[in-house]
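User: Show me a protein chain along with its predicted structure.
Assistant: Here is one chain, sequence first, then structure tokens.
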Amino acid sequence: MSEQHVSQRPDRNLALELVRVTEAAALAAARMVGRGDKEGADQAAVDAMRQMLDSVSMDGVVVIGEGEKDQAPMLYNGERIGDGSPPEVDVAVDPLEGTRLTALGMPSAIAVIALGERGTMFDPGPCVYMEKIAGGPEIADLLDLDRPLPETLALVADRKRIDIRDVMVVMLDRERHHAAMAEVREAGARVRLILDGDVSAALLAVSENSPVDLLWGIGGTPEGVISAAAIKCIGGELLGRLWPRDDAEREAAIDAGYDLGKVLTCDDLVAGEDVFFAATGVTDGDVLQGVRYQGDRGATTESLSMRSRSGTVRRVSARHDRAKLRALTGVRYG
């Protein structure tokens, strides 16, 4: 390892600085909760997140963003963010995971960001979706994308010393999952369906004292990378395998050198040993409380701040004066 690389390692806890970023995105997006405008909610979160990111002392490149440069003003893949000073980091962002959830006033929308050392985050290329299975530390070694799901559920029940009727699997409510839903129910276990938001669902699957035991299904590859960053901090495992949507996407992935049969672990998706993760609730959910407005200028937020190297997981409750924040940062918080 070169002296230059050693000097570039993120020695301070960037996750604490990143909470300010996700808080800003959540506060900006929360004013759009229930208004039926998912694009407007997303734009508000993006604008607030970008402005706050410019103040973070880092030389960041967006690896997991919201599209290519021609789709700006989103936080696009390849965009340089931060103030340009060390450390050099890869950045994965989802300024508003759950744009539809926000627009409809539904639970579990969050603002989220993850960082890793430069060159350590998996670039999904043309592959938008991946198969995923995730669970906490107690069952991490039982996860398998090739074993029939009912067999895995039985192993999970046995490991946790619970009846299989108490096992809960969270998955996206999609037609492609209907056969798996039937298998889970036939095995005697339960299904918890979500409309969107499988980063929040992955956090739920690996958290202590959670009603959910397992995340399973086909969801976004970018969300898989962000989830892997969180799980490297909080513990557990996520396994993923790229899932091309059609022949054209399959050919593009093969031409780009992707191994479509490979099962990717958290370490494959985020290879670095110093990973940072922050998330703030926008709407109330099992993992995080959403933004709560108080009076004509106050608001409260709840966030997670995590770092893999120390294994520290912080739950941050904050009270904000929106007028003072607006004067200080120039970001409009509703």
